[in-house]
Amino acid sequence: MLSYLTRRGIGTIPVIILISLLVFLLVQAAPGDPADLLLSDEADAQDVAEARARWGLDQPIYIQYVKFLWSALQGNLGTSFRYAEPVLVMIIERLPATIELAAASILLAVIVGVPLGVWAGARPNSWVDNFGSLFGFFGISMPNFWFGIMLILVISGYFNLLPTAGRDTYGIGSDVITGFYIVDSIIQNNWAAASDGIKHLILPATALGTNMMGILMRVTRSSVLEVMNEDYVTTARAKGLSDSVVLWHHVVRNAMIPIITVVGLELGTLLSGSIIVETVFAWPGSGALLISAITSRDYPLITGTVLMYTMAFVIINFIIDALYAAIDPRIRFEK
Amino acid sequence: MTKTANAAGGTQRNKLGEVAMFISRMTKFLSVALVGGGLAASSAMAASEIRIGVVNDYAGWNPYADSTAQMYMSWCQTYGCLGTFDTNDGKYKGILAERWEVSKSNPNVWTFYLKKGIKRHVDGKELTAEDVAHSIWRNKNDPRSAQKQNTRPVKSWKVLDKYTIQFTTKKPTAPLLSFIFDRLIITGKDLYEKHGKKADRKTPWGYGPYMIKDILIGQRFVMEKNKNWPGIKKSHPDRIIFRRIKENEARITALLNGELHMAQFIPPHLLDRVRAAKGISVKGTSPVEVMFLGMNPKFKPWDNVKVRQAVAYAIDRDAIIKSIFRGGAEKLDGPVGPGQYGFDPAVSPKYRYNPAKARQLLKEAGFPNGVEIDFFTANGRYINDRESSQAIVPMLKAVGFKVKFHTPEYSTQWPMVRKGKRSFFYQGRGSVVDPSAAIAQYFETGVAPRIMYSNKEFDATVSAERQEFDPAKRKALLLKAFNIIQRDVPAFFLWRIKQYYGISDKLDFTPRSTDRMFGFDMIVK
Amino acid sequence: MGAALNGRFLSDESRQRFLKAIRPWLKPKIVVGGVIVLLLVVVGVTAPLISPFDPNAQNLNNTLAAPTWWNGVNFLGTDHVGRDILSRIFYGARISLIIAVTVVVISGVMGVGLGAISGYFAGRTDFFIQKLVEVVWAFPPLLLAIAIMAFFGQGLGILIFALVTQRWIPYCRVARGQTLSLRTRDFVDAARSLGASDRRIIMKHILPNLMQSAMVIGTFAMATAIISEASLSFLGLGVPPEIPTWGGMLADGRAYISTSWWLALFPGLCIFFTVLGINLLGDGMRDLFDPRLKRSGAGRG
Question: Do residue B386 and residue C240 have CB atoms under 8 angstroms apart?
């Protein structure tokens, strides 16, 4: 097992380096000069030249890349042009918000999708099943940004039930400890702040989680259907165990594996989706940071954020592969 | 990692919060002890908080790093600046400066007299001319300074005494105040010497009527009232939170929900909705931002003045103002409109919608069968910029232009404009309180490559105008310059878009055309 | 029997055979999905004929007009420069269709091709192609497209390039897997011993077997292509404004959502239903081709 993991781990290194090169080149190829953009209207050619020199933009590309790679390996992803903060610090500051959103979406998807799937799977071809399947298809097909806009329009705008945007209301909050506002508030017994945080989280999490909700529902349903027909279930039934006991003890537990698999597989889509949802809801996470960095041609920040997302994705995939390998020994011996 | 994250927001907030609390308690104690019961009762009132929705970004703690109106406004009332332009009466008013004068013998020498007894936030150190000297130095030399152009006319400076400082300009510069008054941020010399560039974060203490409480990058700026500021009243908001909400819909919804007391820049199509809302009123100002079509003679066919004039005649501005801006814009004749310095209704020639004439001009220019052009517009930077440009395209097509329409991202468009690489573009120029700097920037030979227009007569006129201290004579020269621009049309000035603010009835505030929202102009009801 | 073509269109037996062949396709999923997709295609193809207005015709006197439905001129209302929404929806279908089909076809050809080559030749070729796959696949789904569009600017060609960049990989993977197992089969050995060239073997023997899975992948890929284009346009990174796409209409309409909700609602609904239809169709097709695949519900193309 360990040797498999080590092999896999080493195998990702060239990939990561190639990715960093790709991202770096991509950013460099862009039209638009950050020095021009970030300095004021009236800065003249000399100011621009000074700024370029200060940011190292006047050097050949390969030197810039090597410098970048070298510092990156030391944990330094450069300094943002616009904010003058270290990129790594900025990304890490914003990360809790994105993680919070992602976690909430997954939680919502699981809480709604799985029971629905179990319910539908346990009663195949009933109206429950059909409703559930339809729900599943809806979830998969829903464009998350459109759904987000509609949610804001109806629930926030029309009914005024929940806030339109942002993550918190100033003044209610407490000190930042972990970066997860809700958790921090609860730790400090500030229930008003916790509830404020949750209120802000509901709509974005719904918009982002709908896709996964649909997928989970369908996967769960299939899993349940499959397991229901297994011998040991029939045996258990024959033994006289009630349906619901059979359901929860045997069926759901065995359906867990594909569910977890799907969550893992869909995490990448969730990550990308979060970029868009964060933009719709002005959620201050790394996705919003990326988009704003793109708009202002903040090279180091763009490179850093894209790398961060990609690294996260690579790590997640690695973990999933490791889980697979743990579950299915055959995989360890594949080339 | 957590520590770093904290340093960004949490710890700073706490320390500052504690200090601010201490000061406010002290002040309360003093006011009760010295002034007596009446005030004691009112000082026990709950703190008033005003929340304002703004559009532009909060990029950091360095007060010299941005050059938007929004940031000038924020730093001006916290760190402090010499003064500001009062659009109500068209005069410059001092904030940290008491008075100022130009030397009669040498028009290059300006002397500024600071107000006495201005105490700094937190440590109470008094404002001196040394701080102002330091600020100019920092403006010119801070590696992140995006404000250098404001002090460019200043060649040297000298501290005369504790409260007096003298600037010497390179050439006589009549509009100097429009360069430095509320665009030179005053920071403390001793703090910078002690902490270096970390001073902005560790000790963001200024001299202005409001104190910096917190800045959350990309999201908000929180300031609290400086109770020691001379003239500050109870009715001024105790705390102001500027929340950045770029999306129009979100910002306006927050206003209507009560999450905000004021929202900047209401787009035309939402005006009715805001007007209809209870407890909120809409106030508009004519801005100091002018919108225009730039035509760079370096590119064909823009080297032909008839082609440029054809554009001026081809556009039905009234129709666009009526439909796209819902009436919330004013036509411009020349670079400035009523309320801006130098405006003169006698400017000529004026252009009115006349597509037949436009077609005729194109024919005379040698394009009887039309001519191909590229049209670039700003996109999402100004109110309805893309939409208004979209509406312009068919009007140009109707008179014979074959238009290729581009809507690049502003971050790509803007550098290209500044480098002079755009042949024909829709653009705005903000902060045109005094047009001198703006028209020089765009039309004077050799100043900036944006529009490579060159006219000796124009150059001579603006040079003379800059050095003319007599207002009447200066305005006459400005009019002459405007007329040249109108005649040659290197840029066709389209309109000024009215800036609408949505204001809750709990707040008494009249918006300024300079977009300055100062706490000391606001009254909480 | 009887080739009785006079009087009757089909003989009884032919008709029986036809019906028998078609019956498995008549599941509700496939029918509903198929109808929706067919509708999309028809609207897209006939857009110039059925649109009441030119989709780019501005009318500044009639901006942000509410939908008039059957009573008036603009069935679904007008947008902020007075363009008819219904016409733009029709043309949007056209463009969405063109983009989706182009992306799917190009990525399909590329993916199946590279996958077949990779699986057939194995060894070094396989190694390099798979390394390429790994690097490109390491990016979270939309991110690479966002980066490409942000940096290279707008344009239909660039958009298609950006969308294809990652999308060929699922085809590649499946094709490679299938090729790997196919190449050891008897008929391939037989063909080789008869002197057939590698190219011929791939083209004649291997590719046809890859078609079914490619079709299933392709169907789902169309759905994600449509959503991706809409997402990119929403972020302001999509096609230039003269080209009406549903995503672009959504992005435009968002700024007017509280007063003129029709600008954003209808294009969004269209995206939703189109994707729904495609997903239904794809799912049904997958059930048909390989009932074993029914287990997993993931709709990822």
Answer: no
